[in-house]
Amino acid sequence: MHHPFMAAVAKELGTLGIATLRYQFPYMENRRKRPDPPALCHATVRAAVAAAHHLLPSLPLFAGGKSFGGRMTSQAQALTPLADVRGIFFFGFPLHPPKQPSDARAQHLIQIKIPLLFLQGTRDTFAEMALLEPLVRRLGAGARLILLQDADHSFHVPARAGRSDAQVQTDMLNALATWAGSIAPDGL
Q1: Does residue 95 lie within any of the structural domains?
Q2: Residue 79 sits in which domain range?
Q3: Is the dihedral of CA 149, 152, 158, 164 positive or negative?
């Protein structure tokens, strides 16, 4: 949660009038490299969602995360819907490991009945577009894919792209705010 990307995202979302709650999985808190078992990650997601709702019960609640955090959030939602969550967003959904194309990690998404937003770089080696785009179409009208041209899994763009990482981040967060506003027009 202290990663510069996450801190910058939280700060910029704040300027857009969107409150955030950042948290860490126990393995990150304890500086271990190996992720916690899925059940512990799902429990961590549920605790964070409950804390966010407890702190600001009148605000519409969205859940999501960057890469692994987003995937654990969606798995938790697929198992048992997260209380009061109106939609899930992904900053770079990790569809597969680099150079191992598959959509097996996404099969649980079909069970989710709330809106999903995929914010994905077109150069993301963790999600080949040839697999991700058809997957999002299969998920139906509740799923939306926003492609960030030339961005990788960390939302970095090469100098030749003609845009900076900061511009990509602003575009990404504006898209997130627009999407959330369309789901919760009563205010964020």
Answers
A1: yes
A2: 21-182
A3: positive
